[in-house]
# Entry
Amino acid sequence: MSLLYRLLYVAAYLELVSFVESFQLVSLTNMRYQNSIHTKRLLAVIDSDGTKRKRSIRPRSSKRRSINFSKEIKNPDDVETWRIYGVDVSPDSLAMGSNENIKEAPGDTKAAPPETTYLTAPVIESLLSRLRIKVDDSRSNGFTMLPPDLIDARVIRRSLDARRRRASDPKYTYVIDVDITKGNARKLKFVHQPGRMERTKHNPGVKNRATSMDVSDIAGRKSLPRVVIVGAGPAGLFCALSLASSGFKPIILERGQPVEARGKSIGALIHRRCIDSESNFSFGEGGAGTWSDGKLTTRIGRNSEPVRFVLETLVKYGAPPRILVEGSPHLGTDNLVRLLRNMRADIQSLGGEFHFECRASKFHIKDRTISSLDAENNNVKASHNANHSVSFNDLDAGAVVLATGHSARDVYEELAASGVQLEAKGFAVGFRIEHPQRIINEIQYGEEWGNMVRTNRLSTDDANKRHFDSIGKSVKHHSGILPVPSYKLATDEAFDGVSNRGAYSFCMCPGGQIVPSATEEGELCINGMSFSKRDSIWANSACVVTISPDDPILDEYRINHGELAGLEFQREMERKAWVSIDRPIMRILSSFCNINEITKALVHGVETRTSSPVRVARDPKTLQAMGLDNLFPAGEGAGFAGGIVYFISIQIPNKL
# Structure
């Protein structure tokens, strides 16, 4: 039944109830539909003598109404933690109270963690309003204080809600943990309501969990297998860190260069168009994400313990502490360089070995295990190599973690030739669309707030100001500062001439730039990135369509390439793009996000490496490749993109 008919049905039912109550029908027992659920509901309204009686409506939340707040509780002085959602603060209010910090004390030079630095006077005021606590504005030495009923408070998450519903202004929404005694919680009538107010695990203060890995205690074992990790991207590095912290001596093979030398190869590609097939935007320490924005994306809950573990580990090695709180955390390429150096040094101090410019070329399989592997040196100066290795022949491996990244196509081909079970998976391809960032500011924030975006880069902020001045409309003045906005677009009704496909934006880079991400001569593909300040005058995002594993467009490629058909499809798109490289960039006119004016945009192509088109078949229980007892596929390159970091760093060491 369609939604319209369902609404009409409900309306008719309500009208019938009203009719029955108004005319006091004596009996409905002789109606044809006597036994229907609707008739029984109507009969419940009327006594047998025809007199109307009062209906008792069952409350929606019986648990909440049945709580006896006057009942005595045990241990009222025990402290518990409540997580409070939906604490809203306007940007203008934050601008007025930005220098107030409840954790600050005179003479304290040590920077406070973001959980407390974000807890300014306007945030506390909104929190108290949310909890219905009426207190005077109490201050001591100019610093905001919590009322006596609350022991402590910490900001867990802050996000910006810029949806312009009913012409509302943008607002920052906070999730805050509050420590309070059981007695005060009862007095203030705290009730567990999922998504609004939840009792959570009491965790006094702000702890750094990044120093302790939640893995099995295996350091006391007499013998540990030699673990070879192929690839030093996010999955490989976190796995190496976890193994090294647990007593293993992992060997990390990375075909690209360490992050310091990798920057030189990328500079040569950008300025002289000289591509190094082993060290580029895709290959090298940190993986493709090092020079691709550094967004931190998760679908397993931003406030969960696994996500907090990953974020705190990144902060430990040099990431800005604000990522612990921001709703859409972003590292930026410039921060990643320092972070990777620090993480590598720590892994080496724990006994891990890094071998850069060392490409895994062959896997020797015997009796359902990878007994050894070969690794070739890329013939680059040995000074780039952290352990001065040249190459390996028959490198013994007790276990192999395959974390190569989605551009290591030669590894897929070697695995297929070795008989490792592979399976096709869905992926997406398309183009990258680029707008002036000021246009996105206007679309997302509107004419009233778009001019409040600040990057602290004079040329970018001046271009934004000129844009809004040219509109010429008189708008309300604001003092609040807004971050550079991004956007997301998605539909499942993108008609390709034959059928509908999914289409969506991907890896949107506000204040960013477009970079070449090809790994071979004669191919062209692109990606996007932003530095930590996001201060470019341009915004870009991939706009891609989905391709399913059984998509008819891949039929001609399956004939000769089987499960690797998606790889060959990507290659052909990139080669065709290379042939067209001297043609002018296509300029399009697009009606964007229901905006009245037609905005100009640049379309760049092609974007083919959004994800891997093939995966290594993996046993969900053992996490090992199907048919092999010691190969652990991990990360994007193996076709497993979800939970790359935490899943790999915890689950695989436990299996070993």
In short: The chain has 17 helices and 24 strands. The chain has a mean pLDDT of 78. The first helix runs from residue 3 to 23. Residues 63 and 191 are 10 Å apart (CA to CA).
